[in-house]
Amino acid sequence: MQVSVIICCHNPRRDYLARVLEALKAQTLSTDNWELLVVDNASEGSVAASYNISWHPNARHVREENLGLTCARLRGIAEFSTDLLVFVDDV
Questions:
Q1: Cα 11 to the chain's mean position, in Å?
Q2: Average pLDDT of the residues in 59-64
């Protein structure tokens, strides 16, 4: 893997996050070359239960209980496993 794509979200709008995930799914870089981390930032409902990312073999959901974008991004930074990371907004 070469790149980590990190999406931080708190109570995401279903249509917005679904559109972002579909766009990532449709891009042309092989999934062998990147990982996907979806950081659920203290959402009221479980983001993992609402969004299926099993299409990506190197994807996982991570929960961050401390509310705030900085906390969510720091959790993503702590979890990523490549040399390069990219934050993608869920809107």
A1: 13
A2: 97
Does the pTM of the predicted model rise above 0.70?
yes
Task: Read off the amino acid at residue 87.
Answer: F
Alpha carbon separation from 30 to 2, 7, 55, 56, 90 (Å, rounded): 11, 18, 12, 10, 21
DSSP 10: S
Query: Which of 68, 53, 48 is closest to 21 using CA atoms?
Result: 53
- Per-residue confidence at 90, pLDDT binned at 50, 70, 90? confident
Q: Which amino acid would we find at residue 13?
A: R
Q: Report residue 18 CA to chain centroid gap.
A: 11
Higher pLDDT, 91 or 38: 38
